[in-house]
Write a structure and sequence with these properties.
By secondary structure, this protein is an alpha/beta fold. The protein contains 6 helices and 6 strands, in the order E-H-E-H-E-H-H-E-H-E-E-H.
């Protein structure tokens, strides 16, 4: 049976991580720690038979893809459809700034995104309808191969929910730390198996952050 393996990675720590901003399509860079996280992933994946590297076209993902692709000797492919959830007019704002600028949306909660959206933005179903077809096309193109995708917390959660057959209401039950690695096997009979979730070589750093 033919199996296609996806190494699904969240980008490294972003510059404004401590400000708790809604980055969405806001194009923020990664920190030195974020670079280290991607270097750790690259070293880990260098032992795997990966044939292609894909990423979102936002720089926090492309920088990681360049680091990983450079280590693997592969040129990354940027895909617009793998961008993070678009947060409309709250892009780049904190919750406090968004509520102050748009008081009519002051009651908005991020966890409501399965059913609602910020003005001009997407909800989780919009994100799924953008990401999943792009992923299916990529997997079909590389059937039977091992590929890497460097994307975002929201994009990764959508892909993981789809792989596990979970409704979008479970989106926030899945953690995706900066620099984490997920591994999903896609079998040619349609079965999908999550082999690793929110793990990888940066897990020790992520666990240390909790305590």
């Amino acid at each position: 049976m033919k199996t296609t393996r996806l190494y699904l990675i969240r980008h490294g720590q972003v510059m404004n991580h401590h400000e708790f901003r809604y980055n969405g399509h806001f194009d923020v860079d990664i920190t030195d720690i974020g670079v280290l996280q991607m270097e750790n992933i690259a070293a880990f994946l260098s032992k795997e038979p990966i044939t292609a590297v894909y990423s979102s076209d936002l720089q926090r993902a492309t920088k990681g893809a360049e680091i990983i692709g450079g280590t693997l000797g592969l040129k990354p492919v940027k895909v617009h459809a793998f961008r993070e959830l678009h947060l409309g007019r709250w892009e780049g704002l904190t919750r406090e700034e968004g509520a102050a600028q748009f008081p009519e949306e002051a009651d908005f909660r991020f966890r409501d995104l399965a059913n609602t959206r910020i003005k001009g933005g997407e909800n989780l179903h919009d994100l799924k309808n953008r990401v999943v077809p792009a992923l299916k096309g990529t997997l079909t193109k590389h059937a039977g191969e091992h590929i890497a995708l460097i994307a975002h917390g929201g994009v990764n959660r959508v892909i993981l929910c789809d792989a596990m057959g979970l409704p979008m209401g479970n989106f926030f039950r899945i953690e995706q730390d900066y620099g984490c690695l997920n591994v999903i096997d896609y079998f040619d009979d349609g079965v999908k198996v999550v082999k690793l979730l929110n793990g990888g070589p940066n897990q020790e750093l992520n666990i240390a952050k909790i305590y």
